[in-house]
Every structure is written in C-alpha cells, then in structure tokens.
Design brief:
Elements (H helix, E strand, L loop, with lengths): L1 E5 L6 H12 L2 E4 H10 L3 H11 L6 H12 L8 E4 L5 H9 L6 E6 L2 H8 L2 E4 L5 E3 L18 E2 L6 H15 L2 H7 L3 E5 L4 H11 L5
Parallel strand pairs: 1-3, 1-4, 2-3, 4-8
Antiparallel strand pairs: 5-6, 5-7
Length: 212
C-alpha cells in the first residue's frame, strides 16, 4: 500500500506513521526527518532548509521534490511506503502525480488548532533516530531517553507558540488545499486525531479499511 499521511503540524502523523509502518510492514518516509538530518550534518541542502524551518515556513518545492523522488526509488519502497510530510502544496501533489508514483490512499488527520498548540508544547523527538514522543500522550519508557536507540530526547526549536501559529497558518493556506485535490481523485480519507493514542489509531484503521 502506498499512502500519503497529512494533517497539521503536531497532528500525530509521525506516531501514526510508525504504527502503520509496523502493521503493514512498509517504511515511513518522513521529509522532516530527512531535512533535519541534512541540517544536523550542515549539508548544502540542509543549510537552505534550516532557515525556512526555523521561521516556520515551508521548504521550497524543488528541494523537497528532489529529496523525495530519490528516496522512493530505493529498494525498500518497492512493496509500499507511507509519505509523512509530503506533499505539502498542491504543486508538490501534482509533481508527485506527474512523476508516476502510484498513491493508493491519502489519510488526513483532523485536529483543531487549539489542541495542536497545547500538544506541541509536550512534543519531543530523539536526537539520534528522530523517533517521535509526547511527554503526555506517548511517553518513553525512561524519561528523556529514546526507547529504540537510547538517544537523548529533545524539544524542537520551532515548537514555540508564535512559530506554531505561523506553521498552522502556513498549513491552512498552502497544505490544506491538497485535500480538495486528492478528494477529486477519489483518494482522500479522514480520521479524527484529537482522541487518545489508541482511539486515534482505531480511527485511522477504520478510515483505511483495516481491521480494528
């Protein structure tokens, strides 16, 4: 199954992507993780992306498209994938379609802005592998330590209220219109993402036609 996972920043895309990845035995391809890795390594593309991300803005289409296309050509995506964080604009969605990549379903996690702002203040991620956590709803087994690789959990610099509001505005203006694009193609399904983790996971399974 080839999935696109979308929703506002902090909707739980990373967590639900990981759950679906295990259940369907396919990889989650996160542009956010790829970009932050590039920033940490201070590669050319990382330096370009860093300014946009820290300002709560979208990274330019040409940068993202080149990263994603290259990643989807790798052997581990042959039997399916979950795209998390791409496409983020209608232009990117059209570019993905034109590239010949087959998409089976587009899942949109629905969460209100107020809930997003509250949720992001509790979000953490692994400084090594990028695994997502939330100190309220998805705690690690050991405080501050990644369950997977034992890396240190950190709070992202862009998870501050003013930047969060900017990111939400960008999402509503530039990313949300993608829903209409994929709805016309008959690919869009939605799931409520404000519930507890296990309930949201159930909502997602129902939306995708999987057993709950």
């Amino acid at each position: 199954m080839n999935l696109v996972l979308m929703g506002p920043p902090g909707a739980g895309k990373g967590t639900q992507g990981e759950i679906l990845s295990k259940r369907l035995d396919i990889n989650t391809i996160s542009t956010g993780v790829m970009l932050r890795t590039a920033i940490k390594e201070q590669s050319e593309i990382g330096k370009i992306a860093e300014k946009y991300i820290n300002d709560g803005k979208l990274v330019p289409d040409d940068v993202i498209v080149s990263i994603v296309k290259e990643r989807l050509q790798k052997p581990d995506c042959a039997k399916g994938f979950i795209l998390d964080g791409f496409p983020r604009t209608t232009a990117q969605a059209e570019a993905l379609t034109e590239s010949g990549v087959k998409i089976d379903k587009v899942l949109s996690l629905e969460v209100a802005d107020e809930a997003i702002i509250e949720r992001l203040s509790s979000r953490r991620e692994c400084s090594k592998c990028g695994a997502p956590y939330n100190i309220i709803s998805n705690k690690p087994e050991t405080e501050g330590i990644c369950d997977k690789c034992k890396g240190e959990l950190i709070q992202r610099a862009d998870d501050v209220p003013e930047t969060i509001k900017n990111r939400l505005n960008v999402y509503h203006e530039q990313t949300e219109p993608i829903k209409a694009y994929y709805e016309k193609l008959g690919l869009l399904v939605t799931a409520k993402g404000e519930d507890k983790l296990e309930d949201t996971t159930s909502n997602v399974a129902k939306a995708l036609g999987l057993e709950v």
